[in-house]
Amino acid sequence: MLLSFLSPLHLSSTALIPHRRFTSAALRTQPPPPPPSAPPQSPPNSLSLNPNNLNSSAPPPSLSCALQCPHFQSCSGCTHEYDLHHPSVVDEAAEFFKRHGVFDFTFDSCRLYGWRCRAKLAVRGSSANPLIGLYEEGTHNVVDIPECRAHHPNINAAVELLRKGIAELEVEPYDEDLGTGELRYVQMVVTTHMSSLPFSERYRNGKVQVTLVWNSRSETTPNSEKLNSLANFLWTNGGQRNKINLIHSIWANFQTSSSNIIFGNRWRHLVGERDFWEHVGGIDIYLTPSSFGQANTRAFDSLLRKLHKYVPYGSSVTDLYGGAGVIGLSLAVTKKCRSVRCVEINKESKHCFEKTVSRLPNVGDSNMSWHNVDASLEPLSWLMGSDVVVVDPPRKGLDDSLISALQSLSSVKRKAVTSTSSASNTKEEKRPWVLREREGSVSIQGSANRSESDLLPQTLVYISCGWDSFKKDCKQLLSHKAWHLDKAHGFNFFPGTESIEILAIFKRDSGLTPKKKVSKIKKPKKSSRG
Ligand SMILES: C[S@@+](CC[C@H](N)C(=O)[O-])C[C@H]1O[C@@H](n2cnc3c(N)ncnc32)[C@H](O)[C@@H]1O
User: Terminal CA-to-CA distance of the chain, rounded, Å?
Assistant: First the structure.
């Protein structure tokens, strides 16, 4: 049997193995959790860590930053119950960066509760008693998590509405062993972008886009009537005409495969607003239910705002592993970039890129493009022509070919590369992968027309969700003396776990041994008195 543990931690379309839990049952005290609609405040946000103090004896667990979730022992989502504001990997990270010359690593503890704006949940059990949640660790038993402390409160509210709908309409949850039943999974994604509300009320009033993963090939199969009834139930009882006004829209995804892949290829918009917008990094971004999206909207916004500080105005930026180009486009607007090229393997993101560009303010001068390309093929051609390269790879880290290209930049003979570069050579192109790439590209020409093909990146921005792969990649980049680490920051993207998001800024070394400065010996001034 295929192992498939559904974990909320990461965002692939397959289920993942949950983290091992490190906790002492004896430490578990049970004060009643505060109501989900009023999450307690996070502690002060940005902590500057002094690595010299990090080994002092650990303070006793404090309830002020404790998870206090009734599902903690059974659900596989969270692995840590105490000190949510300071996962222990932060201390290791501070030490690591200190060893590599960065002494002012900071960690932003972000929002500790109600932070998850994107969740994929399995639906099992029976129509009279549906279970909607994650797998118990090491099993395929789904645990109901109605009071999850990580979920945005409106995800929990939408799950409760779904539970009622399943019972009332006698919708059959999926049976993994038999392959029978109707509803397999549900994805809930919250948008907090409601410009009609004052900023302080937007997060709390987030609306939920619901995707029902239905066990049939398409909307024409006999059981699709039940799907429409369930969508109508949710919309009537939680849509914009209802006073609860909780649901943004309802989509269906059709999946009959017996594998552990959550989504099939067929998506249908059923009811509510089709367009889904969020606001991060100073821009409105467009997402479809099938797009990659960060689960922790607020923490991602903090990371982007920090990142803006390291990109000079008017830069030329390449955004590798760029998804729908959120990072690149956010820089295009806030830093008035001359050019932004986004490189992404998933062609589904192209539409989101185009829609996002359509709402960007004041980017008249900027050339912006999106390319449906594997970043590991011909990576040098994407590095050339930019001052700043941003990489935001999946958890496994950078592809080897990209690391080699980054290591070799100093020795690149500019002319030789630009003449063969797929990004710059438009004449008589015969290479099939380049031709395919052009077909999958979108290009928005601004008025900036300076030739940039001979630029070499001076700054590398590495955004990482995989601490182990980051350490490995970082050591490789530093070992060739091609780059040095300049700054590093951590963000609490997944409170309750040992995963943190890293923003690291590397600067390129020329590869030349610096010439010794000839010190000018000042002649002593002659005293006017002789
Ligand atoms: C962590 S996500 C980051 C997405 C985007 N930067 C964002 O914040 O929305 C990693 C992205 O890399 C893409 N990806 C994975 N392997 C790739 C490759 N070899 N070449 C280009 N993109 C790739 C994935 O499809 C995914 O969209």
Answer: 97
